[in-house]
Design goal:
Layout (H helix, E strand, L loop, with lengths): L2 H5 L4 H21 L4 H29 L9 H13 L3 H8 L5 H10 L7 H19 L6
Length: about 140
């Protein structure tokens, strides 16, 4: 990418380029890597990072985006919850599950507790636990030796 794009031009092409490269890397890794400890460690990193980003976005919604308690439940709050859902690729999932107005409680339920939502903290925890169990099993000493 050209430095001029990052200094004053549109940043969107750069972010699209980064996102495309990340998808390419993940696709190549999924399609070509041997399913052993290395893929388990890569998955562990993915789930930890995903949970961390979800938690940080949720935290920023309360402490940065809406610093005044008076604005809770207002129009700004509603649009910020929608933006949070979009940033987690969860906007469509929210409307599929709840089919109603965006509320803070339902957003929190979706991105914290729903095991079907890939970026929820619960889903990350469950998949991380499974991966660590697999990793421990693959690294255990061979009993037949």
């Amino acid at each position: 990418m050209e430095a001029a794009v990052l200094q004053g031009g549109s940043r969107r092409p750069f972010f699209d380029w980064v996102k495309e490269r990340a998808h390419l890397f993940r696709g190549v890794a999924e399609g070509t890597m041997l399913r052993d400890e290395s893929t388990h460690f890569m998955d562990v990193g993915q789930y930890v990072e995903r949970a961390d980003c979800t938690a940080r976005l949720l935290d920023s919604k309360y402490h940065v985006l809406l610093p005044n308690f008076e604005n809770v439940g207002g129009a700004m709050d509603y649009y910020q919850w929608g933006a949070l859902l979009r940033s987690l690729s969860a906007f469509r999932a929210y409307h599929k599950i709840y089919r109603d107005r965006i509320t803070a409680g339902r957003v929190a339920e979706l991105i914290i507790l729903n095991p079907q939502m890939p970026r929820s903290l619960r889903s990350c925890y469950d998949r991380l636990s499974e991966t660590l169990e697999e990793l421990c099993g693959t690294m255990a000493p061979d009993a037949s030796a």
